[in-house]
Design brief:
The longest helix is centred in the middle third of the chain and has 24 residues. The protein has 3 helices and no strands. The radius of gyration is 15 Å and the shape is elongated. It is an all-alpha fold. Helix content is 67%, strand content 0%. It has one domain.
Length: 63
């Protein structure tokens, strides 16, 4: 699952049906795969929006 998410993030054009089949072979349902793709894509989208707007991370320590 993590290899798939990493591949989708770093090289989305390289992801093929074979990648999804490997997840199915590992026991993931089609819904699981859809959820994985949606979450991975959402984080990529949100990070690019933040980067594009120059939003900086808040300091969790308050300083």
């Amino acid at each position: 699952m993590l290899r798939f998410a990493d591949r989708l993030t770093r090289a989305p054009g390289a992801v093929t049906r074979v990648d999804a089949e490997r997840l199915r072979d590992a026991g993931f349902s089609d819904r699981d795969i859809l959820d994985l793709v949606e979450v991975t894509a959402y984080y990529a989208y949100a990070n690019r929006i933040a980067d594009g707007l120059g939003i900086e991370l808040e300091d969790p320590g308050g300083g």
